[in-house]
Amino acid sequence: MISNYLLELAQDIVMRARAAGASDAECTIAEGEEFSANVRMREVENLKEAGSRGAGLRILIGRHTGASYTSDLSNDGIAHLVKSAIELADITTEDPHAGLPDPEEFGTLEGDLEMYSPDVAELDTAFKIEIAKRAEDAALTSDPRISNSEGASFDNYVGRHIFANSREFAGEYRSSYCSLSTSPVAREGESMERDYWYTMARGFAGLEAPEHVGRMAAQRALRRLNAVKVETQRVPVVFEPRTARSLLDNIFEAVHGMSIYREESFLAGKLGEKVASDDVTVIDDGTLPGLFGTSPFDDEGVASRRTVVIERGVLKSYLMNTYAARKLGMKTTGNASRGLTGNAGIGHGNFFLEKGVQTPEQIVAGIPNGFYVTELMGFGVNVVTGDYSRGAAGMWIRNGELAFAVSEVTIAGNLNDMLRGIEAIGSDLEFRGSVAAPTIKMGEMTVGGK
Amino acid sequence: MRFSESIFAARFGITRQDLENYLGEALSQGGDYADLYFEYLVTSSIGIDESMVKSAAQGVSMGVGVRVISGERTGYAYSDDLSPEKIRKAANVAAHIAAAPAKVEKFDLNEGRKHNLYPVLTAPTETAFSERVDLVKRADRAARAFDSRIFQVQAVYADNLRQVLVATSEGRLSVDRQPLARLSVSALARQSGGPPQRGHAGGGGRMDLDYFLKEKTPEYFAHEAAREAIAMLDAVEAPAGEMTVVLGPGWPGILLHEAVGHGLEADFNRKGVSAFSGRMGQKVASELCTVVDDGTIGSRRGSLNVDDEGQPTQRNVLIENGVLRAYLQDKLSSTLLGAESTGSGRRESYAHIPMPRMTNTFMMAGESDPEEIIRSVPKGLYCVNFGGGQVDITSGNFVFSASESYFIEDGKLTRPVRNATLIGNGPEALKYVSMVGNDLRLDEGIGTCGKDGQSVPVGVGIPTIKIDKMTVGGTA
Q1: CA-CA distance, B133 to B265, in Å (whole number)?
Q2: Percent helix, strand and coil across chain B, each to the nearest 5
Q3: Residues 6+ apart with CB under 8 A from A63
Q4: A51: nearest CA in chain B?
Q5: Which of B228, B85, B249 is nearest to B147 (CA)?
């Protein structure tokens, strides 16, 4: 990858847009190489390898915007890109809040954010296949009830992200990741269940051992066997980290600046109010080295930062890009996010719930009758109203222990009450992606079953 | 359209000989089968928010995917550059990945039969932007005018024109031009300082722009979105537990997509990881249920003249009078299972490996009067609109989320009910279908199905049906 060439190309595209009549312009170029190896039942199933790149442009003519993208970086392709964006400014409405960030907002984090690890690009294909095989094999050999598998895969990616605008911001960063996952199938009598485990890191050295991945996946599939449907009842509900993370996704949607100004969030207008129990502190931090939500600048060229979203239960900040901040009379939090093109949306950095003091075992030990949720299904969360209703599977808690598997039930409540009803937060915070949460215990929710 | 008229021949100068050469390179290290998938995709979208057209974007992406299959092993590589050297490079990468003893010696490309399901002369993507921007403006005005309690409206119009070429080592050569357009409207309503409620509607398909001007207008979708938002203002908490559920016609057909459709995709069954594995010929639904996946319905969002492996789509009866009859097959699974492809091989783009997927999945009409179905329920839930759904293929458990539903009390619809997820088990749920209406309706054309990270447009449909027992996930 020749970096300077693409950075210069982005700046050139911005200049060409200005020459074509744009009063402002911003250009994103992304370039990447992907690889994936899938094995199943100890044989190679798929191997995929390719590279791609594309450019996106957004322009302003006064307060009218237009946007375009192309995978064709030839001279003709770029000319078409510029023309496409310019012509769209004719049909958009003049929007007093549209525009690039204020000049003092531009910036980039200095120092090594450990987003790129050169070992990823150097991994040998045969080695990667071998790693995937070892993970699947560890699952298949861990118990006679694991006799089938959906396979294992090793994926890796290296890429480069370039951003330049007409206010003289120009920046780029490289990133890499590799991941290993396996999905075994457990069977006993009529009961068949699958589950998975995965590990992901910026560099190969950060991955968990393939044998560990395989054994974890197998244990998770095995404990789901012979699940029953319980009676409908109200009980304490514990979310293990994998499912607790989805609650953080819901909180992110609810503090999303666009949803706030449109009043389509149950947290709109609640800044400074108590919205969760005292134990709850939620942070967005795009500056943590080596993690997946880290970047030196956001997709508008604003430096990444740490934002306290909820502090000991009190809503402290929304997450905003320049546009949402202007609509709300606030300042951007450096959370602009977009693909190659279009107006910037809002994304998160590393978005997480601060850990508590109890171990997950201690949390479960205090519950005489409750539900430990290991899987959530469906899209039954309405962030406008906070209504929450999702399919769930997991383990039933009896006298402080995980007693038997439960499936085909729902859990329901309202996020307003759920956040206030958080009674315990575990000490087991771990980053397996850009959103993370430790174990969470809710006081009471409705479990829908028989 | 013939190969010679396609963009790949006309603009990029690709010849049959070129295609044969690339296939030859793909099989140069051996293998049973190879195919090339060329794609040229033009997209555009226009969005309105707060009565301002705030976003408008258009773009072009193109590329070619090269696949080589040897036994159960697939090698795949792609290029977003259509120059001969880059295509040859991708073919060589795929060839080395799937290296095996040579089996294919010679192939002559021939254009086979295909449907003409969307004879659109001017695709929406090829029309003037001024016409298309009017659609979102009209939707915004109509939703706001519907009721003074509507305080936020967003509408998005998006279209694309996908031109594809598939060439296979079995000699199949297919080109297709696939237009697709969609208008969706979201409205928020509030009364007397209470909490807001959202309503959502949208639709489209593989048709020309006239569809939105004459048949399903922006006003139609806007009123539907606004109506739902207003209706939900008085909604009460959903019940929890097992009860009788009546599904209204159309989009609630998402039940079939989740409960049975995915579980019948041949890749899962070939591997024995589906709850439906080994159940061919068995009873998996009540005898009132006949479920079909049909990629040949004119102008529908889920329809295709040829699938993404160049095979003409067809009408596949999956469940006939309650008995499991067929899986959805692609090239790889059908070869390994010794079956025929059902025209179900689909992929998101040139960068993706094809898999068995659904097209338009629906249940055939029965004989019951829909009103009679509701009258027959002493106590239950009537669900008319849904958000998304999801299924765990292996356990067979599926969910789908009702966004608009009503209590049925003594055979009459009473209060509206807030969001609730419905959950069931695929091979069991349809056994409780006790009445099927005569009012089969297909959805408006807004569905997108995700599998293994690949999204493809699909359709669903269903008549009014009564399910005697299903778990509803409310709080009350």
Answers
A1: 39
A2: 25, 40, 35
A3: A94, A95, A96, A98, A99
A4: B79
A5: B228
Q: CA B205, CA B180: separation in Å to the nearest integer?
A: 5
The pLDDT value recorded for residue B205 is 97
Residue A165 reports pLDDT greater than 90? yes
Which pLDDT does position B83 carry in this prediction? 92
pLDDT interval class at A4 (50, 70, 90): confident
Q: Are the beta carbons of B461 and B362 closer than 8 angstroms?
A: yes
In angstroms, the CA A311 to CA A279 distance is: 9
Q: Are residues B213 and B275 in the same domain?
A: no
Q: How far apart are CA A374 and CA A269, in angstroms?
A: 33
Quote the minimal CA–CA distance from B24 to chain A in Å: 19
Domain count within chain B: 2
Q: How sure is the predictor about A1, in pLDDT bands with cuts at 50, 70 and 90?
A: very low
Q: What is the pTM of this model?
A: 0.96
β-bridge partners, B110: B172
Same domain, B247 and B152: no
B297 lies in the same domain as B424:
yes
Q: Are B200 and B185 within 8 A, CB to CB?
A: yes
Judgement on whether residues B75 and B169 belong to the same structural domain of the protein: yes
pLDDT single digits (tens) A176-233: 999 999 999 999 999 999 999 999 999 999 999 999 999 999 999 999 999 999 999 9
Domains and CATH numbers, chain A: 3-222 (3.30.2290.10), 227-450 (no CATH)
Measure CA B405 to chain center.
23
* Other Cβ atoms closer than 10 A to B78: 27
Q: Residue A38 has which token pair? A: 């899938």
CB–CB of B273 and A148 under 8 A?
yes
CATH number of domain containing B79: 3.30.2290.10
Q: Which residues pair with residue A396 across a beta bridge? A: A371, A404
Pairing of strands B73-79, A43-61: parallel
Q: Whole-angstrom distance between the N-terminal and C-terminal Cα of chain B?
A: 57
Based on the domain organization, do B175 and B317 belong to the same domain?
A: no
CA gap B322, B282 in Å, rounded: 8
- Helices A3-19 and A75-88 sit at what angle, rounded to 10 degrees? 40
Q: Chain A residue closest to B352 (CA)?
A: A48
Is the pLDDT confidence value at B108 over 90?
no
Give strand pairing partners of B164. B39, B176
> Is the domain of B201 the same as that of B252?
no
pLDDT at B106 over 70: no
Is B454's Cβ below 8 Å from some Cβ in A? no
Q: What is the mean pLDDT of residues A321-327?
A: 98
Q: For residue A72, list chain B residues with Cβ-Cβ distance below 8 A.
A: 60, 62
Range in A24-28, A299-303, A378-382, B375-379 the model is least confident about: A378-382
Nearest one of A130, A180, A135 to A154, comparing CA atoms: A180
Are B219 and B91 members of one domain? yes
The DSSP H or E segment spanning B337 is helix B331-337
Chain A hits for B80, CB-CB cut-off 8 Å, are 52-54, 71
Contact B75 A47 (CB under 8 A): yes
